[in-house]
Fold this sequence. Notes:
The complex is a heterodimer of chains A (213) and B (467). Chain A is an alpha/beta fold.
Amino acid sequence: MQAFTQVSGTVAPLDRANVDTDAIIPKQYLKSIKRTGFGVYLFDDARYLDRGDLDIDVATRRLNPDFALNQARYVGASILLARENFGCGSSREHAVWALADFGFRAVIAPSYADIFYNNSFKNGFLPIVLPADVVQGLFEALAAQDGYTLSIDLPAQTVTTPDGQPFNFEIDPFRKDCLVRGLDEIGLTLQHADAIRDYEARRAAEAPWLFAS
Amino acid sequence: MTTQTLYDKLWQAHVVRDNGDGSALIYIDRHLLHEVTSPQAFDGLRLNARLPWRLAANLAVADHNVPTTDRSLGIADPISRTQVEALDSNCAEYGITEFQMNDARQGIVHVIGPEQGATLPGMTVVCGDSHTSTHGAFGALAFGIGTSEVEHALATQTLVLKKAKNMRVAVRGQVAPGITAKDIVLAIIGQIGTAGGTGHAIEFAGEAITALSMEGRMTVCNMAIEAGARAGLIAVDQTTIDYVRGRPFSPKGEALAKAIPYWQSLHSDAMAVFDTEVMIDGSTIKPQVTWGTSPEMVLPVDGHVPDPAREADPTRRQGIERALQYMGLTANMPVTDIVIDKVFIGSCTNARIEDMRAAAKVVAGKRVAGNVKLAMIVPGSGLVKRQAEQEGLDQIFRAAGFEWREPGCSMCLGMNADQLSPGERCASTSNRNFEGRQGAGGRTHLVSPAMAAAAAVAGHFVDIRSF
């Protein structure tokens, strides 16, 4: 997994609450059996004026000029600014793959849906929680300034504005450590293989029906 | 310990290793797989030369991409076909039990798990699908996971989890005749919102919940995720045990005799403390219809579509305006004036035998209205379909003008050919009314099977209580 320490970059806005995973990556793209290539379909329904599919070349499609990601000032954005309950809906990790594949390294919002939040950390993608009033302030600053950037420091747990104002954010220590070091979680868990086997032996004695077949 | 919640008990019974920071390595008893969220996980296993930890814990089925029409023709869409074939070959390569598309036991993963007895009380159940919360109806800790966690569960039979908070939603008293599990859960979501349960496991309790059949309880837990909770739970009682007994994967004889006393302990203790408690008077719940693009945008059938002018909060007002525009509705119009184009009765929320019976009861001897272009019934599994046919329900549906289809996820999310066209309005028994969910530009109204059936006959929403 790609490690995450410091990221500075252009911020793009998505000014809407309850952005669901169907909006982040629509169903037709979930038929892909790969883990890559979803970035061109990110926010597909809002980003394009015509309907796409895996077998349609995106270069032939019409972009929606009103959608932020299509505007010149947000080209190359690596940080997404969003509203409450971002990523609600299905468990599709394709939503995180699409955000990361597009080039986003982090999202800032007041709250997230649980499964999306959890999936993010498995992909070197950082979901930052900041209070709603701080997020509101960032939306206003972003609207007022072309090429608005933020600097994220994960070890220090800060988001810093261009004029040097830092905002602290909370993050679970285990998730932070995995992200900062880019660790393979399965490899880490398998270091406890003996504990898993011990559990199975204990549990099979108490509840043999769980291990019947 | 006499003050544990059901969630606390299930968590504690599955701790392999406590990390001491609020997270733990949690053992997974049952892993259900389907074709959409598993191929990348199997690729990960191959890439790292890892094998599934315990083969018998896994059960796979293709449900999202399968056609609901004649299957002897195979899957027409080559991309869908490739995904289903990838599941077949991955299961064959690793030796995982799979119900393939033409197996009589094939169906929606959240229907077949309980139907086969693969879902049992006290288990941890995971699947790369958010509606895994369904299985919590059995007093099992069940929740949806992403593909990285599918790979983790395959390789280690565990997940690293952070303990959730405890929430109890008690639905007191009795619901009125005609009110179903779907109406109960939509009313709950309407009250607490789509983020109301975020960070929590929701235990559904109260007389109106315990009075439900297992099918009804699954409908309620299925939509816990629409309230933001990864897991929904209902305590084990005699209804649970009676349902589980005698199914292909469930314990028999001595094993069953040993399991039952344990299962009977799977309830919250009388003095258990919850972080959040919500109380709802069941007698006040009316038939529910969603009007907007989030499950919390829901109204009683005798209600009126909201007026953004009356909403003071700007973000909420904007949300209402956007939803009204997408849905093609006018502020203040009565719900019963909403005219529909299509009807979909199916999905992991409402495609079990009881749902089929409820819909058939409404349409028996009647006809689908002329303005309804398509009314389709998609049973949750091959076995539900067979049961319904033995009861003659398919004949009732066909005589009324419904299409009677093969089992799968179908138009709940339209990954197969079953989709809404732009602007089409659907009365749907599924679980999500997001923009584009059932097809780009499609407009979804979530309702119970009886309400969907009545809408099919009337051509618009009607109050099932006076239908």
